[in-house]
Amino acid sequence: MTSAHMEKEVEYGVFMPVGEGGWMRSTTAPPVPATYAYNRQVAILAEQLGLDFLLAMAKWRGFGGASNHWDTTLESMTVITALAEVTSRVRLIPTVHTLAFWVTTSPLALSGCSLVWNVPTSTCTPPPSVISGMAKYSAGN
């Protein structure tokens, strides 16, 4: 591998604080609320600082205990989509746990194909091979 293949610049971003407590599991840390307003402030600051991306985790259950760490969270896709309101340059990256959607995605995985996402119309159009794979799966074959 030559140095010509290694010219990609390092990118910097923010792992968004979509969970109560942010990234500090502590009862003595400053409070980090799991609210859209707080994440909106973080996104605006990241945009102003010239960061490259915002990444939101998907988390639906906290740790409980005295800190209540992540007991309240924002849904990843929704908060990242909403943050498009205040960003113009940073990339917005949500997180999806595929096993949570096993029932709906398993026909697609079994067919070995992927969806083609038509962003302007916000519709998903599966290729013909996916449709036939889904028909076989739902028929129990």
Blueprint (SSEs and pairs):
Blueprint: E1 13-15, H1 36-49, E2 53-55, H2 76-82, E3 91-93, H3 102-111, E4 116-118, E5 123-125, H4 128-138
Parallel strand pairs: 1-2, 2-3
Antiparallel strand pairs: 4-5
Helix pairs in contact: 3-4
Uncertain residue segments: 110-124, 130-134
Q: In percent, how much strand structure appears in the residues?
A: 5-15%
Approximate helicity band: 25-40%
Main sheet: strand order: 1-2-3
Distance between the termini: 46 Å
Gross morphology:
globular
> How many DSSP-defined strands?
5
Summarize the structure.
The chain is an alpha/beta fold. 30% of the residues lie in helices and 11% in strands. Helix 3 crosses helix 4.
Word description of this protein:
The protein has 141 residues and is of the alpha/beta class. The chain has two domains: 9-96, no CATH class; 99-141, no CATH class. The protein is built from four helices and five strands; from the N terminus they run βαβαβαββα. The longest helix has 14 residues, at 36-49.
Comma- or semicolon-separated keywords:
141 residues, alpha/beta, 2 domains, three-stranded parallel sheet, two-stranded antiparallel sheet, 4 helices, 5 strands, 30% helix
